[in-house]
């Protein structure tokens, strides 16, 4: 009987709540397409991928109890008595029982008369993490009959039986701890010391060989050490445990480690969360604007260089960590796309690929953008170990009361290690620290405490409400000072930040953000086509009071001078008032332009229009750029109207509750017919009077192989529906298939199916 067959009988004996508990602990078995029956559930539960996923979710004491069960199985106790497991762990049987119950709920172990049984995939033959080697049965099984007879004589057992009898007798001998200790006590002193050292945690060493006449040869002759194929000396598990003594126990830490807590306060945590979320939204918006103006070049390995990260951080007033996270999430959400350059011409160097905004994607509203960033960080398209670590950290901290956090990344790492020992690698501490830093930037954490945004990731139905609340806290007005500054206490919303960035330069950012106006920044706004009246109106609309007179004077003064000289694209011609052009022609700093008067109101330049504009502005003038027909040239800002809207999967689209699946599975028969190769093609052949085209035959074979296929279904009284179906089962004249469009099973009559 296979593990899947054994599981099927156990699953069939569960009630609704018991089956739902199993499904809740092993959610991967409910991935689409949902299992039709319990036999499919059993097969998925018995698969290596599902078992490995379940192991990653075990806490330290669960893993330790499972390890003790594996050791008992390796030592011949099948099923393993709970009392024996408790003895190995040095714990009370009642304590171990509770962890066995939890393993049984995850179908990683189950009870039988006399003890606990493990699935085949969890039978272990190596226990190096516990400082133990291989079982004696495995080491002895590699020996021939002659060698087994020699060992039997050496330990005082009969040596005249068959190989199986010799092997069984030796295995029983080595599983007798008292007998092994008595044998080891007769070894020479150097050998006893070697055996004690190896038993303490080094089950295999390379410096000992069974050379005749050496003290170590005694250990090999009596089976306390075995020579391996690689030339090393190995000690059996039974020998190590016997030499450690009856008082030795395997590691067992049933209690969660205590962590230092800090009281942040729920209101303070939510305020920090809102500020962090709005700050990151501002960074993402700024990055999209910068990338639209000048795409970001990528390195050869397809990553963003550190120099570019620092430059963008300086331009946006953010930190390197904020910029890296913002760019990474913008790429994952599809807001930024990698554009490959055109092939270079012969002799030219290939241009690097670049990152730039997708012109077809509509910029999401602030609340939607925050949801998009959160869900992408929480469930990326390509999850890895880092994804599992961040989800673990959020779940652990979410157990605390709102406003309560854990002090320090080291304490969180220790707690996470206890809760997920199977996830621990050399990078684990760094992954925990990265999860905390990124979570703070996204507003998921605040000073070590989980915020409402973090808790909403665990309850997706609340995500819309929480993100709308966070974004609503953004400031929509600014305080304008007479020193030509604008200050926004708190976090500005996207519209406010965009308007101020266009007409002023950011100076500081933190609990408050400040901008400073200058002639060059105001001219920058005018260069983009804004008039003085429009700019003053927009600034007045975001001011908490009246605009100060110095700012109004500055805007009007720059507007008066703006366009005092005009640069044309026709051979770079400068047009303006005679007095201004005379001054320009005589200006020493503009000598490099080679300005020459061809008329009282016209100067020619030897430099192109862009260079002439830059030189005039550096000299303190405010020229405007005009085309050859005299029309003003504005910076290229308008893009094609985007058509694609990015959305977030709503909570209603998520899988059903395990109880719903339990009801459905228990109502269905536990087993069903298997679809054999060619069976579907024969059934469809009857539908088409025995004439299937090669293409139709291929589609039938694809369906049988689990590959999705397009079909057209013509139901009574309805328009023909085009469906994408897979995973078929044949039930007479009905085809039961999984519909990728409906995310559910459909029963289609063969007579109404047209193969596309």
From TrEMBL:
Keywords: ATP-binding, Helicase, Hydrolase, Nucleotide-binding. It comes from the Bacteria. Residues 340-361 are annotated as: Disordered. The keyword Protease does not apply. InterPro entries: WH-like_DNA-bd_sf, XPB/Ssl2_N. GO terms for molecular function: helicase activity. Residues 482-598 form the Helicase XPB/Ssl2 N-terminal domain. Pfam families: Helicase_C_3. This is Helicase-associated domain-containing protein. It comes from Amycolatopsis heterodermiae.
